[in-house]
Amino acid sequence: MNNQDICLPRKLTNQLLHLAQLSPNAEVCGLIGANAEGLPVSCYPVANSAETPDKRFLLEPSQQIAAMQQMREKQESLFAIYHSHPSTPAEPSPTDIEQASHPEALQLIISLNTKGVLEMRGFKISGETVEEYPLRLIETA
User: Fold this and answer.
1) Nearest Cα to 136, choosing from 45, 43, 40, 30?
2) CA–centroid distance for 79 within its chain
3) Angle at the Cα of 28 from the Cα atoms of 18 and 125, rounded to 5 degrees
4) Whole-angstrom Cα distance, residue 35 to residue 33?
5) Residue 8: CB partners within 8 Å, gap ≥ 6?
6) Cβ neighbours for 106, distance < 8 A, ≥ 6 positions apart
7) β-pair partners for 27
8) pTM tops 0.90
9) Using CA atoms, how far apart are residues 88 and 130, in angstroms rounded to an integer?
10) 37 CB contacts (<8 Å, ≥6 apart)?
11) Strand intervals (E) in the chain
């Protein structure tokens, strides 16, 4: 595990957890934009267009392009790609590892498989290498 904490604003974290709870039977997904200081500030939900959304996610291409365009307009950079696991732990699946295409972006995985307590963990995936980054909640103005 990497010792470099990833700071996530509490408001943004709550938004991600809420989105996952709204879809208990299918993976939700989207992008997180960061401001010029590198702090994650915006959530861009994107529809899951996978054939089996209960087991995997695929960012709907036109919505993903629109989200990236909104980030550019707001002078944000891609900070993370998030998705949920309705019935498995908050760790990358073999499919998640195989299809990871942004090694610079954090992969945030939210698990609903935890008896009433949601779990969210962060990973960077580059090829077959998966490295977990500890998440730390912060308060922002």
Assistant:
1) 40
2) 9
3) 110
4) 7
5) 40, 135, 136, 137, 138
6) 6, 32, 79, 80, 81, 122, 123, 124, 133
7) none
8) yes
9) 17
10) none
11) 6-9, 29-34, 40-46, 77-85, 106-111, 119-126, 129-133, 135-138
With vertex at residue 6, the alpha carbon angle to CA 113 and CA 31, rounded to the nearest 5 degrees, is 65
In total, the chain counts a number of residues equal to: 141
* Tens of each residue's pLDDT in the chain, 141 residues: 666 889 999 999 999 999 999 999 999 999 999 999 999 999 999 999 999 999 999 999 999 999 999 999 999 999 999 999 998 999 999 999 999 989 999 999 999 887 667 899 999 999 999 999 999 999 875
Q: Which pair of structure tokens corresponds to residue 53?
A: 């959304």
| Interatomic CA distance for residues 71 and 122, integer angstroms | 21
- The first and second tokens of residue 30, run together, are 């989207």
- What domains sit in the chain, N to C, each tagged with a CATH number? 6-138 (3.40.140.10)
Tally DSSP H helices, then E strands, for the chain: 3, 8
